C-alpha cells in the first residue's frame, strides 16, 4: 500500500501538483456512499489531500471499511437528531416489490421529490446554519469540492465557500443533468423500461419513451427544486438556481462505461468513468471461498446465486413471487441455488427443496469468480451490474426500481444477460425455463466472456480517465468551451423546427404551383394536337 502510494505520488507529481480536495459524502443510500468512497480512495491514492465530509441523513450501517486510504481525513457530521436516526429502522421499501403505483412515472413525479429530498432537509438545514462547521471548512482552503448532484447541499456549500465544485453522478445517466452539459436527447439511443430499442422499436415504444422521459424529468426537477427551496430557507437569502450552480463546472463525471452502456450521443464535458470501481487484477485473486460454500458448490454441477441487493429484502417478497421461485427450484433439481435471504425463517425453509441454501450473507465476489456458479440472478443495481460485467458471468436481471430497469436493458444488450419482468417471478414455469436455458446454453457465457474481454481491453482505463479529467478540471475550473449553447434555445431552435416548417412550406407551394401549371398545359397540348 505504502509503496504503491509513493509510486502514484511520484507519478502524479511529474505533471500535476497535489491539491486539497473536499469530497462531500452525504450518508444516505449505500450505493451512493460506496461510489463516493471509492472515488475518494482513488483520488487519495494518486497523492491528493482528500477530506471526506459526511453529513448523516440516516444512520446507515455497513459503511465501515469503505475508506481504504489511510491518508483520507474523515469528518463525520452528526446532526442533533442523530439519536432519533439510530432508533429508526433502516427503510427496506417492501412496497417496491409488487406495487404498480410505486413504479408509476406519473405518481413518482409527485411523490419522489418530497419522499427522498425531504429526507435530507433536517440535517442539511442544521449544517447550512452551522457557522462553526462552515468556518472550519472555509479555513481548510480547499482547491475544489466534489459533490454528487443527488443531494445538493455540497454544491451550495461550495458556492458559499467560493470554491469550485465538480459534480459527479453515481448512476449511468440521469438525462436532466446530462442535458445541462449539452447532451442532446438520448430518446431512442438508450432503452426505457418496457420499450424496445431500435431497430425493433415501433410507435408505441417511442410513445412510451417520451412518456417516461417526460415524467422522469419532472421527478428529478422536483428533487432539485425541493432542495433549492429548503437550502434557501436555511440560509435565509436567495441563492442561484440549482441547475445554474451545476452548470458552472468544466466536467461532469457519470458512472457510465462507454463499452457497457448504450451508444448515446454526448459531449466532451461529460466524462464517463464507469468501471473505475472495478479492479481487474484484484478480481483475479479473490479471497478463497469459505469452507461451507466450497462444499455447497460441490453438491451439483451447476450452482445459481440469487441476490436482490441490500436495499430491498428477499424475505419481504410477496408470497406469490416466493411461490413462483419455489416452483422453479423444484423444477430444477439438478441445480444448486444459493439465495441471499436476510432472515432465519424455519417455516419458509421447510417449504424449500434440498437444492436450496438460504444465506444471510454471501461472499459475492468469490462466488462470481467461481466457474461452477453458472448464473447470477440479481436486481441489477449498478454495483452488481458492473460486477457481473467485469466477471463475465451470465445474469438474469430482475429489476425492482430506480435505475435498475435501465441497467438491466443495458447489460442484456450484450447478450450475456436477460432482463426479466419482476411480476413474472410469480410464473414458476417461465422462470424455470429461463433459468434452465441460461444455465445450459453456452451462448450466454460466451457473450458475457466477450463483454469482459472488451472491458479488459478498453483503450482508456476508467481510473485514469477520472484522474486525468479531474486534474484538468482543477486546472481550468471555468472552462465552458465544450458545452454547446444550442440545447438552451428551446425545442424549436434546437431541432430546427422553424426551418423544417419553412422548407416544407416552400416544398408544398412548389408542388402546388407545378401542378397548377401542368394542369393548364395538357389542355393546350391536346388542343394543339387536335388542331
Ligand atoms: C497536504 O497535506 C500535507 C500534510 O498535511 C501538507 O503538508 C500539504 O501542504 C497539503 N497540501 C495541500 C495542497 O494542501
TrEMBL record:
Keyword Iron-sulfur: no
Places the protein is found: Membrane
Signal peptide: 1-18
Catalytic activity: glucuronate acceptor + UDP-alpha-D-glucuronate = acceptor beta-D-glucuronoside + UDP + H(+)
Gene Ontology MF: a single term: glucuronosyltransferase activity
Protein EC: 2.4.1.17
Similarity field: Belongs to the UDP-glycosyltransferase family.
Pfam families per record: UDPGT
Species this chain originates from: Caenorhabditis elegans
The name this protein goes by in its record: glucuronosyltransferase
CC per GO annotation: membrane
Transmembrane intervals: 495-515
Keywords: Glycosyltransferase, Membrane, Signal, Transferase, Transmembrane, Transmembrane helix
Membrane disposition: Single-pass membrane protein
Keyword Cell inner membrane belongs to the record: no
Amino acid at each position: 500500500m505504502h509503496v504503491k502510494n509513493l509510486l502514484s505520488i511520484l507519478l502524479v507529481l511529474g505533471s500535476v501538483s497535489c491539491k486539497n480536495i473536499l469530497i462531500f459524502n452525504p450518508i444516505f443510500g449505500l450505493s451512493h456512499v460506496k461510489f463516493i468512497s471509492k472515488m475518494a480512495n482513488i483520488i487519495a491514492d494518486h497523492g491528493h489531500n482528500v477530506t471526506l465530509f459526511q453529513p448523516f441523513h440516516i444512520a446507515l450501517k455497513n459503511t465501515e471499511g469503505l475508506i481504504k486510504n489511510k491518508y483520507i481525513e474523515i469528518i463525520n457530521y452528526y446532526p442533533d437528531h442523530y439519536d432519533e436516526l439510530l432508533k429508526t429502522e433502516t427503510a427496506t421499501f417492501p412496497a417496491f416489490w409488487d406495487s404498480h403505483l410505486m413504479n408509476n412515472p406519473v405518481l413518482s413525479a409527485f411523490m419522489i421529490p418530497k419522499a427522498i429530498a425531504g429526507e435530507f432537509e433536517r440535517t442539511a438545514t442544521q449544517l447550512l446554519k452551522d457557522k462553526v462547521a462552515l468556518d472550519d471548512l472555509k479555513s481548510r482552503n480547499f482547491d475544489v469540492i466534489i459533490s454528487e448532484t443527488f443531494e445538493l447541499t455540497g454544491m451550495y456549500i461550495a458556492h458559499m465557500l467560493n470554491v469550485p465544485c465538480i459534480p459527479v453522478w453515481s448512476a449511468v445517466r440521469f438525462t436532466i443533468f446530462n442535458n445541462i452539459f449539452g447532451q442532446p436527447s438520448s430518446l431512442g439511443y438508450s432503452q426505457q423500461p418496457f420499450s424496445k430499442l431500435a431497430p425493433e422499436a415501433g410507435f408505441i415504444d417511442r410513445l412510451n419513451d417520451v412518456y417516461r422521459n417526460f415524467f422522469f424529468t419532472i421527478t428529478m426537477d422536483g428533487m432539485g427544486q425541493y432542495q433549492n427551496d429548503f437550502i434557501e430557507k436555511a440560509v435565509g437569502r436567495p441563492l442561484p438556481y440549482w441547475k445554474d450552480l451545476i452548470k458552472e463546472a468544466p466536467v461532469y463525471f457519470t458512472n457510465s462505461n462507454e463499452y457497457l452502456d448504450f451508444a448515446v450521443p454526448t459531449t466532451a464535458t461529460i466524462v464517463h468513468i464507469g468501471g473505475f470501481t472495478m479492479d481487474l487484477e484484484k478480481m483475479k485473486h479473490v479471497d478463497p471461498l469459505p469452507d461451507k460454500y466450497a462444499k455447497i458448490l460441490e453438491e451439483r454441477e451447476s450452482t445459481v446465486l440469487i441476490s436482490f441487493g441490500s436495499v430491498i429484502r428477499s424475505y419481504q417478497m410477496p408470497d406469490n413471487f416466493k411461490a413462483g421461485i419455489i416452483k422453479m427450484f423444484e423444477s430444477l433439481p439438478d441445480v444448486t441455488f444459493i439465495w441471499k435471504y436476510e432472515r432465519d425463517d424455519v417455516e419458509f425453509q421447510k417449504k424449500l427443496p434440498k437444492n436450496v441454501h438460504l444465506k444471510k450473507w454471501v461472499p459475492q465476489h468469490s462466488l462470481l469468480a467461481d466457474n461452477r456458479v453458472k448464473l447470477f440472478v440479481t436486481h441489477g443495481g449498478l454495483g452488481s451490474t458492473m460486477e457481473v460485467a467485469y466477471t463475465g458471468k451470465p445474469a438474469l436481471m430482475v429489476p425492482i426500481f430506480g435505475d435498475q430497469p435501465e441497467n438491466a436493458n443495458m447489460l442484456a444488450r450484450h447478450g450475456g444477460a436477460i432482463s426479466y419482468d419482476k411480476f413474472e417471478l410469480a410464473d414458476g414455469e417461465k422462470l424455470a425455463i429461463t433459468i434452465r436455458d441460461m444455465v445450459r446454453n453456452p451462448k450466454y457465457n460466451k457473450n458475457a466472456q466477450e463483454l469482459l474481454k472488451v472491458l479488459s481491453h478498453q483503450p482508456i482505463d476508467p481510473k485514469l480517465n477520472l484522474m486525468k479529467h479531474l486534474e484538468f478540471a482543477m486546472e481550468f475550473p471555468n472552462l465552458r468551451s465544450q458545452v454547446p449553447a444550442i440545447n438552451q434555445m428551446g425545442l424549436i431552435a434546437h431541432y430546427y423546427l422553424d426551418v423544417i416548417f419553412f422548407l416544407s412550406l416552400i416544398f408544398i407551394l412548389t408542388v402546388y404551383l407545378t401542378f397548377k401549371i401542368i394542369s393548364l398545359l395538357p389542355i393546350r397540348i391536346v388542343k394543339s394536337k387536335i388542331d
